[in-house]
């Protein structure tokens, strides 16, 4: 059962929040070099939020210029521990607007475009300028630093397995380290919590500092987060992370990956964490947590909960959804299935990929145009919003048609968690004979008829 739309999401915005969203769209499209549609002679463009601008609001808008930098008296940027303002300024001065535009729509994938912008607005407490800085910096990180879409997700596990036998020692080492983490099951995606959020389990005892390179650890982290993104939807737009601390010792502690994970969620995947469960942490972790907590944004820190036993874990996850490894009733066990020969053959069909890309580009252009009309035409805003929602659905379904041509198949495609057309099958068998099938037969693990219960979904 899909519950009510959460506040601050598409379909549940206050008038002020909608005005902020319009302001951010205006600024974002300006960065992308998207020209506003010409208006009939004698008409005047209305500013986001509508209404006549007073001298005070005009002064405020000027002060909140798109490219200003907000600083404390000592010259340091406010609330900018990751240097996002510097990244923003560098991107604006060096990157082609069209490249930024393409990076944004690549990042959007199956998300409602409004939903994506709203994540950044909520993360920056509805400060449009700071949200814009964060958004552009995140796109730059995806495009220039991590190469999320043109490498990590495009090449995926199959390329890593192939590179594991490379004659280039560096390439071979990085690929083997990446694959080692998958085979170990250091972290994995499975099931949902009581709010219907997809769960990512992290088995901390399987990590040893220095066993894998920093680059491969970061690639694996991004790969896991980005794959988890595919499981999110408009009604369940955050995930749950369960850190299984069973058997944890100081030999498993490694601050580098922790800092990278914090930066990912706070700077590059804002508003994606619903809850973090630290399960069965030993007493030695208390001091470590005091250090880590100091690095966290207070909002993120408030989402962290400690569970000592099965009973406490059940406050967040139904016992039927807790894997037996943690004492629950779900008999599922992690087992890595290697890439199947030919599973990415679709990616070589350049003709179909181009057609689908062109269709998406057309829908994107139409969405941008309708968005500009929605911002400027307050009289027809409701009708224009409906058109935007229809286009957002077209973009969502279009992405899933394009997905097999731009993203290498993953473990979760092979086992049937992610199915054709973006169908997510957390538990059990497909409900209809025509339901999308997994790439290969997934291990049954005793879940012959278990289905995801309707009341588990927010």
Walk me through the structure.
This protein is 47% helix and 6% strand. Residues 42-66, 69-78, 430-434 and 441-458 have low confidence and may be disordered. α1 packs across α14 (350-376). With 458 residues, it is α/β, with parallel strands linked by helices. It has a 5-stranded mixed sheet with strand order 1-2-3-4-5. It has helices at residues 15-31, 55-63, 84-94, 97-108, 113-123, 128-145, 148-163, 169-184, 214-229, 255-268, 285-295, 298-301, 310-313, 350-376, 381-406, 411-414, and strands at residues 187-192, 198-203, 239-244, 273-279, 304-307. It is globular and about 65 Å long.
Could you give a short description of this structure?
The chain contains 16 helices and 5 strands.
Provide tags for this entry.
alpha/beta, single chain, 458 residues, 47% helix, globular
Produce the secondary structure layout.
Blueprint lengths: L14 H17 L23 H9 L20 H11 L2 H12 L4 H11 L4 H18 L2 H16 L5 H16 L2 E6 L5 E6 L10 H16 L9 E6 L10 H14 L4 E7 L5 H11 L2 H4 L2 E4 L2 H4 L36 H27 L4 H26 L4 H4 L44
Parallel strand pairs: 2-3, 3-4, 4-5
Antiparallel strand pairs: 1-2
